[in-house]
Q: What sequence folds into this?
């Protein structure tokens, strides 16, 4: 029965061929499946990235404020001693259309210390390093008050208007978290950028602020958005052109300008003894 | 039945990938080397790559981290990426390599990745810059490492047991690389607020 055998062989061959085709098809499908899921995952990841980028792009920093920061109605933030603590005085803001309102300087036997400082100025850093803790103690003991005026006079010393941005940090903290102002100011001096460089980035300054114990989303946004830029500029102009309130000093010609009951401290910035002596001398009249 | 000696299929996708990635990395290293020369020859030169405070390579080139081993980093890239191109071209020509060769190649690229990770960290967290040519090197080194490692796993360089894992992982190489890029981008955004500063 050769015919039948042949046909059997043919059938077997056909079946084999069929099986081979099926196997190959399965292989192709498996390979496709193997690449399909990762491709899908890639698309999903890219989509997530695109959404994040869009969200971040649209979360534009808050608009800049034409008004000054709250608690700086005098262009400065005033600290007084209360119950052994150094407490900021809550005030309104300098409106865009108006001028600052100086705090009264009563003759009450206390040392009223007013500082005009630039957070990016190395001399201010030296002065604060030497005297910040002493001044804080005097204020806490009720022997002194402190009014800090951040001004930005050093933009030309950095490539990224670091001076304006850094003193805007002071305004932001005064506005949103005045009780953290002194700690943030000290942190800004400790982490101060070097002159003739780009200075610090906003993110680096935000890191310093966080390091000083202030985690406040509004402050972070305010720093990134340079919210009080126009106030920093006008307050700087007011201080450098004068007249200054409560003193015979006509204008700020350099930072730090330190006034105790209206008298300018002439001594060394790193001489702790000289400053306390000066305070005593002023108080003694 | 005769034992037909079947020539293994030439891994042309892998080969072309090595050539393209190697060439891109080499070009970046070459540009950085030229920029370094330019700065050395004429201090104060304004480099083409210096687009802003954020996007620049002058700071990276001038930094201590830019000469991690006492000589400018791009010099390493000029040698290293040339090797990657050479391996890719050899594969296209049908070359077969010994197991130790693939292990050595994998080790070299792992070293490159480790170095790149360190440089990414320095650039984002210490220098605060994004350097365009440096980023091209990051861009190619990351998938180079994964592709070569997964290829070696899949080809049994690290034992028969790892073959299956290598084949499966290789199909995931695109999303894995994209996720690596996303992590770097996220770090850059969080640290430098890139989107608002471009």
A:
């Amino acid at each position: 029965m050769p015919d039948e055998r042949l046909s059997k062989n043919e059938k077997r061959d056909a079946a084999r061929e069929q099986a081979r085709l099926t196997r190959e098809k399965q292989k192709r499908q498996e390979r496709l499946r193997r690449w399909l899921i990762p491709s899908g995952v890639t698309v999903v990841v890219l989509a997530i990235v695109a959404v994040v980028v869009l969200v971040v792009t649209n979360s534009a920093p808050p608009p800049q404020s034409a008004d000054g920061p709250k608690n700086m109605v005098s262009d400065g933030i005033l600290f007084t001693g209360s119950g052994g603590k150094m407490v900021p005085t809550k005030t309104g803001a300098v409106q865009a259309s108006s001028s600052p309102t100086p705090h009264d300087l009563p003759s009450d036997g206390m040392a009223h210390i007013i500082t005009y400082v630039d957070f990016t100025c190395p001399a201010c850093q030296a002065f604060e390093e030497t005297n910040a803790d002493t001044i804080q103690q005097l204020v806490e003991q009720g022997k002194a008050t402190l009014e800090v005026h951040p001004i930005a006079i050093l933009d030309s010393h950095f490539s990224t208007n670091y001076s304006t941005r850094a003193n805007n940090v002071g305004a932001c903290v005064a506005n949103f978290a005045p009780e953290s102002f002194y700690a943030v100011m000290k942190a800004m001096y400790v982490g101060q950028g070097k002159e003739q460089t780009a200075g610090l980035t906003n993110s680096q300054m935000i890191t310093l602020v966080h390091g000083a114990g202030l985690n406040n989303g509004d402050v972070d946004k305010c720093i990134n958005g340079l919210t009080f830029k126009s106030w920093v500029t006008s307050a700087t102009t007011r201080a450098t052109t004068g007249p200054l309130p409560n003193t015979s000093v006509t204008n700020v010609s350099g930072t730090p300008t330190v006034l105790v009951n209206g008298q300018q401290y002439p001594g060394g910035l790193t001489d702790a003894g000289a400053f306390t002596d000066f305070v005593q001398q002023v108080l003694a009249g | 039945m005769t034992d037909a000696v079947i020539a293994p299929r030439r891994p042309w996708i892998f080969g072309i990938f090595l050539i393209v990635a190697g060439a891109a990395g080499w070009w970046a290293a070459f540009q950085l080397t030229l920029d370094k020369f330019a700065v050395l020859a004429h201090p104060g030169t304004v480099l083409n790559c210096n687009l802003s405070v954020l996007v620049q390579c002058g700071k990276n080139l001038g930094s201590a981290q830019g000469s991690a081993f006492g000589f400018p980093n791009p010099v390493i890239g000029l040698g290293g990426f040339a090797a990657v191109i050479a391996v890719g071209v050899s594969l296209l020509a049908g070359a077969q390599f010994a197991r130790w060769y693939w292990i050595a190649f994998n080790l070299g690229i792992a070293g490159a990745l480790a170095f790149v990770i360190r440089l990414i960290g320095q650039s984002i967290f210490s220098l605060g810059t994004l350097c365009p040519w440096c980023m091209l090197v990051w861009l190619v080194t990351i998938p180079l490492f994964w592709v070569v490692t997964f290829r070696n796993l899949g080809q049994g360089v690290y034992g028969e047991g790892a073959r299956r894992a290598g084949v499966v992982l290789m199909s995931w190489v695109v999303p894995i690389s994209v996720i690596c890029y996303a992590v770097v981008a996220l770090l850059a955004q969080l640290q430098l607020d890139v989107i608002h500063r471009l």
In short: Chain A touches chain B through 23 residues (CB under 8 Å).
